[in-house]
């Protein structure tokens, strides 16, 4: 597979994760508005909340500096994905990182497009409530599972070597 094709595939994974996240959030805003709660059983429900923080609502009082920090991390992740593509490293692992980036971009989109009290002050739309755990969204799922999937591949030693005929150190 050419580098251009691999770059398109990685970009498609980012865009797909972002799109699915935004579509599910649009659904949640439409159908869960007004306090509607859909019980799915086993302590899981769909319930609309707006999260000013990051994971588990932490950092809600930090505001724009937190968002800028997350933007820097996402930019670094996107750069790493491009480097992996250029080095012809494992496409499966790269796609997992791209899905994680797409999820992170989905939440950053909320922060920027839903800002009402100042730049970068928007809240993230969360709607998947697990009573014993947290309330989160599809972007969180992509980000978490993408990073965990990449880590599992890395630990299983399937992400270290570049594809034959290329150079790279596996990082």
The gist of it:
The protein is of the alpha+beta class and 171 residues long. 54% of the residues lie in helices and 13% in strands. The longest helix has 29 residues, at 3-31.
Describe this structure in words.
With 171 residues, the chain is α+β, with helices and mostly antiparallel strands. It has 4 helices and 4 strands. The protein has helices at 3-31, 64-86, 91-113, 138-155, and strands spanning 37-41, 44-51, 124-130, 135-136. It has a 4-stranded antiparallel β-sheet. A hairpin with a 2-residue loop joins strand 1 (37-41) and strand 2. The radius of gyration is 18 Å and the shape is globular. The relative contact order is 0.19. Residues 167-171 have low confidence and may be disordered.
